Amino acid sequence: MKRLIFVLSMVLMWLPFRAEATAMSIRIFADAKHAKMQFTAELGSYRIQGADGRTVRELAEGESVEMTVKGGKVALSLGGRSLGSFSDVMFEGAGLKAIYGLRVESQGKTLVRYYDDHLEAKAKEGSLFLINHVDLENYVGGVVQSEVRGVSDKVDFFKVQAIISRTYAMSNRHRHQAEGYDLCDGVHCQVYHSRNNTPVILTATVQSAGLIIVDGSGKPITAAFHSNSGGQTANSEDAWNAPVSYLRSVEDEFSLEGKNAYWEKRMPRSEWLDFLSREYDYPVRNAKMKDSALTFSQPVRKAYFAGGIPLKDIRSDMKLRSSFFSVRTEGAEVVLEGRGYGHGVGLSQEGVVKMIDKGYSVEEVIKHYYTGVNITSLQDNAASGKRRR
User: How much is the mean pLDDT over the chain?
Assistant: First the structure.
């Protein structure tokens, strides 16, 4: 009964936005290879169509079909009876709300994921090539659930996440155009491993529906984010070489209250010096340079370590939590005293949690982390774009 009430409320909340729906094509299970899966119509009915548009079968709610890669095509069967093989097959949801499930056996375990709207299935290199054709707002809800569910229980926190996820989708929606879809479901794009089934995320997504972040020219921004800034965010060029007007370093005292605000790594002094010498040809035999490597201080974010070594490279090569660290010696050991978690550019998720807890608005949070930006609707932004042209 609870599931039915949630689904009904979800349908009613989405109805006002259906007329302005934006379709996305997301490759799912992009980081795995599976040659067999079970498709189940979990809510509503589904029409199975071949590449020619011909209806193969109607699936009623609760019915399942096996998908298997055979001979370079997707073979379908229901209850042991073959429905045929197809180069491209579409499972098209019908009605106001359609939800499907995908079940796969992987490494001795059963994995089940649920998605909204429609599924396209092809065979590629011996595996199923799956694309979720999904409404933008359903996609955003799934991303927020996959990325940050459990981080907070505040609706405004999830509004912020929904807005930046939607902005990312709009600014990168053709990232995989050459491969026949918009975005993948992994960290290369945005993590998207299921539809949303969390009420607070649904509320946040609906209440922020259509909102994106744009720069001064009206272009959707690259809404970079990380776990914790350590008290100061980084300039984009310090992490990725290219300066971006809205990705400027800002003081961020809110992140200092997060669990990932501080970290420490210890190692033998000889190991640290050998690392610098081996990886960057650092002159450890030079007394002055050696002392600089053992007493490096970073009270505010810097781009370079002693000797001009990019701190982002040290972070990557040593797999450190961040590039925001200082160095001191303690006996025969070197201690890296670090702050923050992640690349440090843009929005700090733990900082957002604290800002929302302290009563800051969604707009105040976004404008704190992204310099000189505005929040607008997709509809208004499109209209503004036409006027600018």
Answer: 93
What element of type H or E holds 337?
Answer: strand 333-339
Any idea how long the chain is?
A: 389
Is residue 78 classed exposed, middle or buried when 0-12, 13-18 and 19+ CB atoms within 10 A define those classes? middle
pLDDT, one tens digit per residue, over 17-33 is 444 578 999 999 999 99
Q: Write out the two tokens for 354.
A: 């604290």
Counting beta carbons within 10 angstroms of the beta carbon of residue 302, is it exposed (0 to 12), middle (13 to 18) or buried (19 or more)? middle
Helices (H), 199-280: 199-207, 236-240, 269-280
Asked if residue 136 lies in contact with residue 162, where contact means CB atoms within 8 angstroms, the answer is no
Separation CA 241–CA 314 (nearest Å) = 15
What's the CA gap between 233 and 248, in Å, rounded?
Answer: 8
Beta partners for 89? 121
The model's pTM is 0.88
Confidence of residue 4 (pLDDT cuts 50, 70, 90): very low
pLDDT tens-digit profile of 222-254? 999 999 999 999 999 999 989 999 999 999 999
Rg, C-alpha atoms of the chain:
25
Q: With contact defined as beta carbons under 8 Å apart, do 138 and 116 qualify?
A: yes
Strand order in the sheet with 36-43: 81-86, 73-78, 64-70, 36-43, 99-106, 109-116
Nearest residue to 138 (alpha-carbon basis) of 158, 116, 155: 116
Distance separating alpha carbons of residues 223 and 135, to the nearest angstrom: 20
pLDDT value of residue 18: 47
Backbone CA torsion sign across 267, 270, 276, 278: negative
What confidence tier does 384 reach under pLDDT thresholds 50, 70, 90? low
Contact 205, 165 (CB under 8 A): no
Query: What pLDDT sits at residue 19?
Result: 43
Q: What is the pLDDT of residue 81?
A: 96
User: H or E segment at 349?
Assistant: helix 349-357
| pLDDT score at 9 | 54
Tokens representing 336? 């890296």
Q: 152 is written with which tokens?
A: 């907070």
**What is the C-alpha separation between 318 and 261, in angstroms, rounded?**
19
